[in-house]
């Protein structure tokens, strides 16, 4: 198993937002978490990446990371594309990419990886010396994905990658997530409100409602489910 959550609860002090969540991501799978505003999707990502305290068990490749801090979790091979892009706006594009590789010692291969992401996203190459804050929303999202990939993760967490993007850029971004999944056999856990597009690249999914898993199934099962259709697909 790439990632396994067993009865995970978490919140912000005033009470739990997540109640005993159990889910898993198998190697090479793209798993999507669907849910309305406030369902707890971002909180779930924060619990996995170690930025908020959580109870229950979280296993990454069989290793218990329930009490591991966020930096160590990245070092273990689990990287996050945070919501709202989370790039360092005052650093250049290249400096942002290099922050993704801070835990790596293989500097020659870091440079190779930089070139690789510049080839994948030529718009980043053209703007490599510009401050990230000057990039468009779509470019910042590409930067956030590439930066996470610069740590050479084995599991990528993406929190609402489509947020603030036009439909065309959302399509482009999901197409590139799909190719990252295929080329690198990258396991992914994606939180997304845009159910149609996320289910289009997902293997499986979970529906989160007020902090609990209301439904789980293959991408096809969820697309066919009346509950998902009515609430998230609009038909
Ligand atoms: P959205 O799609 O709107 O981002 P979400 O499913 O990601 O929603 P969360 O951001 O996880 O939902 O929020 C779940 C609940 O936790 C909400 O009721 C929210 O008000 C609360 N919450 C989120 N962040 C904090 C925080 N830093 N402090 C206190 N409460 C928070």
UniProtKB/TrEMBL annotation:
GO biological processes: L-amino acid transport
Alphabetical keyword list: Amino-acid transport, ATP-binding, Nucleotide-binding, Transport
Presence of keyword Transport: yes
TM annotation in the entry: none
Cited InterPro entries: AAA+_ATPase (IPR003593), ABC_transporter-like_ATP-bd (IPR003439), ABC_transporter-like_CS (IPR017871), BCAA_Transport_ATP-bd_LivF (IPR052156), P-loop_NTPase (IPR027417)
Gene3D superfamilies listed in its UniProt record: P-loop containing nucleotide triphosphate hydrolases (3.40.50.300)
UniProt entry tagged with the keyword DNA damage: no
MF GO annotations: ATP binding; ATP hydrolysis activity; branched-chain amino acid transmembrane transporter activity
Domain ABC transporter per the UniProt entry, residue ranges: 3-235
Entry similarity comment: Belongs to the ABC transporter superfamily.
Protein name: ABC transporter ATP-binding protein
Taxonomic lineage from the root: Bacteria, Bacillati, Actinomycetota, Actinomycetes, Propionibacteriales
